[in-house]
Amino acid sequence: MEDESTIILPFRKVPSDEEERGLETVDVYISDVEPTETGRVLKFVQNYCPQAESLDRVKRIRKVTHDQGFTLNVLICLTSSITLGNLKLLIKQHDLESILSLRIHQISKYPPITRVQFEEWNRLWPINFREDPRRDSRFSSKEIELLRNHMIRAIKLADIARSKGEVPVGCIIVDPEKAEIICESHDTRTSSNHPLRHAVLNCINKIAIFEKTKLNSINDSLTPKKRKADKSDDQLIFSSDTLPELNILENRENSASVYLCKGYDIFVTHEPCITCSMALVHSRIGRVFYGRSNNASGGLGSYYKIHTHHALNHHFKTFNGFLKDQIEMLMIDC
Amino acid sequence: MNSDTSQTITRIADDSEMIDETIHHKFMRQALIIAQEAYDSQEVPVGCVFVLDGETIIGSGRNRTNETCNGTRHAELEAVDSILSTNKYTSDIFRRCTLYVTVEPCVMCAYALRQLEIKHVYYGCANERFGGTGGYYREESIMLLRKFFVRENENAPTPKKKINRVLKTEIKPIVSLIPPGCLNFCQTIKLCT
Known about the structure:
By secondary structure, chain A is of the alpha+beta class.
């Protein structure tokens, strides 16, 4: 078995701002506490201390080991929840003055999303962390080889576009389940005199036309036709030439997930512009792989990170830098 | 469905008599009629018109995402394609065009309009939870959208059951004092679907 964690990826995941976020802290009151008193203190914290916001992301108690053994620290609450004076008063009311000695400490302001964040932020104050398996982006070397071939094809399409005097951007859309190329396209904005005929939009449009044709043929085949040979016969039957279409219908039902570009991968030589990035959201694309970043108007990492935006109803993983050198070497630039 | 259509159109006509009619109302009314057509065809009810030099409508479009199996066939892109497909105009015509659209353009369309260097955009209601800055025939645009979204979408892989949804008729007043409609693309591109 090969170890997938040691494979060096030929592309890099474009992280969301939350995944890239560095450590930000908020102040909390903490206190040393005797192990025998922790139950009583936690009850006090839980029942009587005001909590401005949930602190589920961190642990309530930490253990600090040293030469003489260990000390327990308990997290009481955020400093924004109560003033020091009022908290001291509250502690006095509950007869805990001799047990608690308050001091201010920092904890992470946000729950970590990645393991790297967790490992760094956890040093400050222990954190509760469960890694989301959907964020995992591991690839087998066999899969990488397949992906590479798709990207090489996209570069080829960009080269074809250039030879036709078009803006040299190429893309292909692939069904990763079946390892099947669904559609290929390149930029045609020059020849069509249409500033929006970008490679990605062209590809999405082509797929839609393909799907529409398929759908129409199914609908046609389901419309009962009169038998031509026997006009006197009023009985409605399906014409015999509809059988292959019925097979398509069956296939379609088998692959019931064919909805727009749902679950498909797209390989594009250049980072999609903002329009194309949003078109990919509207098309429910599965994953995006691109080579060269587009600092002027890139929507998947450069200018915006549309694929991770909270306000949107669909998100997808995006990987960049794939065969970037090759794209640059060919001087494919748009 | 038919009585629905006539009602909406009648109401638009009534409004035109009551309010101080400007050229913007006139064009937005046309956009609304096209939005209604989308609604009647089971599409997301958004309609638009492109107006050349503030005078003539040179193209219109409405949402056709269901019909075309294409999630990007929004009203604006439909209209742009129909204008360019006539071969009567080249793409620099959009520099002289004003767009009237019933709903604030999404990010895809907003950036497309920017690439086309459109002169001005006027919209009916904002996109984000129907709130925002308001515009021309905002209430009509909102009601049309609400009517659409209480229906079920048969084209979705697993259509949501919406049997318990009720059509709300209350429309909150506009809080913002920003003058209606004029969207400056150089300043903002809002992210919303």
